[in-house]
Write a structure and sequence with these properties.
alpha/beta, D-Maltodextrin-Binding Protein, domain 2, eight-stranded mixed β-sheet, 12 strands, Arc Repressor Mutant, subunit A
């Protein structure tokens, strides 16, 4: 067996979908199927149960996948360690976050300090970023909740107040504070339940015995502010957002002590963390420490 077979097997085992993997790899589906079949012939057992055109990883495949994941992770760690020996100009930091905008200062600091290194970014919900960490697809994840998956460690980057944003001509625009009760009939713009904004919104309203009136929700946190600025509704945004360029909105504090969010930087405890990723982790911690000071 060779590394290509093992890599293909891992991808198919994770998705249980030959067509999807073939499209992603841009290889012919019959060719990919033959690769998996050859691997099964070498091992002497089927790795998948086949039901028509559907695949299901069987007990042989599950056991083999555990070993393959470990072997490929070790090889990737070895490759990155060798790259580290060649210097940061050969390195890359793979970072995932719910909203990439929150990393703008850390990325700027990193690129200035290490112009030869690369930063590769991806976005997703806390659950999606955590899954990518576990799968070894990224080095570091910036998430809004401490990870509860085994093998992941984390450090707190920032604990900040969550603010209410309204359009500049809203009746609350001239105020400094507002109560949850005053927002009972206000139309809210927010994210889908998989994102922290929705979790905080539901929590603060539930504590007041109310339910928010949601007129618009979606999977793009960066779009919330733009929609609020149009006057379509109000919404909750992180305190950090006041320092971001964007459509003009007015900011108010909410009289609710639980209207806060905490950012965490997470990584796999047992995985090799490249020099570039370690340097990014250090600079991110320093960058968010400055944010703490500016907020205070």
């Amino acid at each position: 067996m060779d590394l290509l077979q093992l890599s293909y097997f891992r991808m198919v085992a994770r998705t249980e979908n030959i067509s999807r993997v073939a499209a992603e790899l841009r290889v012919a589906q019959p060719s990919l199927s033959r690769t998996i079949t050859r691997l099964e012939n070498e091992l002497g057992v089927p790795l998948f149960d086949r039901q028509g055109r559907r695949l299901r990883l069987n007990r042989f495949g599950a056991a083999f996948l555990t070993r393959v994941e470990r072997a490929l992770d070790e090889l990737e760690g070895a490759r990155r360690e060798v790259a580290d020996l060649a210097g940061l100009e050969q390195g890359a930091a793979l970072i995932g976050a719910e909203n990439l905008k929150i990393l703008q200062h850390a990325i700027k600091d990193f690129v200035r300090a290490y112009p030869g290194a690369r930063v590769q970014l991806c976005s997703g919900t806390t659950a999606e970023v955590t899954a990518r960490l576990i799968a070894g697809e990224i080095d570091l994840g910036v998430i809004s909740y401490p990870p509860d998956a085994p093998g992941l460690v984390h450090q707190e980057l920032l604990d900040e107040e969550v603010l209410l944003a309204v359009s500049p001509d809203h009746r609350f625009a001239g105020r400094e504070r507002v109560t949850v009760g005053e927002l009972a009939d206000e139309p809210f713009i927010t994210t889908s339940p998989e994102y922290w904004q929705r979790t905080v919104l539901d929590k603060v309203f539930a504590r007041a015995g109310l339910r928010p009136v949601i007129v618009c929700e979606g999977d793009d946190p960066s779009a919330v502010r733009a929609l609020i600025a149009t006057g379509l509704g109000v919404g909750l945004l992180p305190g950090l957002a006041r320092d971001y360029p964007g459509p003009p909105v007015a900011w108010l504090r909410l009289d609710e002590v639980y209207c806060r969010r905490t950012l965490h930087l997470a990584w796999r405890e047992d995985a090799y963390l490249s020099l570039a990723a370690r340097r990014f982790r250090e600079l991110a911690a320093a960058s968010f420490a400055r944010e703490r000071v500016s907020e205070d």
